Amino acid sequence: MRVPHLRSAVFLTLLLLPRPGHAAIADSLHVRSLSAFPIVMYDSDIGIGLGAKSLLRNGFGHDESLDLLVFFSSKGEQWYVLAGSIPDPELRQGRRFAGALDIKLEFDKLLKSNYFGLGNGTDDNEHQFPKEFWTLQLTLGTAPHPRLIGEIVGRLTHYAIYGYDPAWGTITAGTAGAGESFVAAFGARIRWDGRDSSVNPRKGWRVVAGVDLARPEMGSDWRFTVFRLESSLYASLARDHVIAGRWWMQSVDGVAPYVELSKVGDSWTARGFKADRFLDRAMTLSSMEYRFPLYRRLGGVAFVDVGRVWPCLHDLSLRDWHADAGGGLRYYLANFVTRLDVGSSNEGTRIFLQFGHVF
Questions:
Q1: Hey, which residues does 70 pair with through a beta bridge?
Q2: Domains in the chain and their CATH numbers?
Q3: Tens digit of pLDDT per residue, the chain (359 long)?
Q4: How many whole angstroms separate alpha carbon 206 and alpha carbon 192?
Q5: Lower CB density within 10 Å: C or N end of the chain?
């Protein structure tokens, strides 16, 4: 089996540090805490990559959190994220609150992005080209019940997709989203969240339903609507042994750039496939994970992902699904989780370094 370029990641941290227990973590939520994680990686596409992620909770004494990620590589890839929340999402978990604010500013420049066309049966290819975007997202939330949360979301995103060759026969100037474009979207979500933690859940369940609208009246270059329904379930088998499952359905109506369509393939969906491997208007995805301890802060995971895309949800069928399986590592800090996943499918093996559980 041919194996695509694999990303090697080195976790630079002290694995011998004791892993805090659940009670210790809960007691420390309202005090000032800082979690930081340096990143070193190498990839034949991006070169040598360096960066760091940090999260400061309650640094100013108002139960807020500030999250910063900085990453760059020797071949020009750049990824920066600055996010702030008040109160911190983990402090809201299982509690009523009158209001909450989340702000996120992100820039990502990827020199080796993919496009395979639309549909569930597109052919694999090695054509890659630069893609970059910046996005500003503002979320206002309230919880009239400890488990019931409502949110209003506003988002501005600018895309720049260039450097492709029309002779490839895949992406051209006529592809929706090629070149530069702007998305202004407004949405609403309702969530029932019975998990015991938003950072590292071990039991409970969560259901999210949401709708997002992008309209020219708001300044967007596109007119589309995204409907999303996602549920996840967590069961604790023993101390730090967890079975987790997710089911996700999404549909995009209207005229949208390809980067806003439903997709199967990347570190958050099907981990055995290239990013954006299957694109279309509708998508269904299921995942199962077994999470288990290894040594102190270090844990492991075994997973399976199954999904596919359709032109619309009316075309749902039980045929031609795409599946992958794999395993990985989890490194648990007080304020976030670092993950390394290795997923394999009939199209090869992929390695991902990311932050936070997939679900």
A1: 52, 80
A2: 8-355 (2.40.160.50)
A3: 333 444 444 444 333 334 444 444 444 567 899 999 998 877 666 778 899 999 999 999 999 999 999 999 888 899 999 999 999 999 999 999 999 999 999 999 999 999 999 999 999 999 999 999 999 999 999 999 999 999 999 999 999 999 999 999 999 999 999 999 999 999 999 999 999 999 999 999 999 999 999 999 999 999 999 999 999 999 999 889 999 999 999 999 999 999 999 999 999 999 999 999 999 999 999 999 999 999 999 999 999 999 999 999 888 888 999 999 999 999 999 889 999 999 999 999 998 888 999 99
A4: 6
A5: N
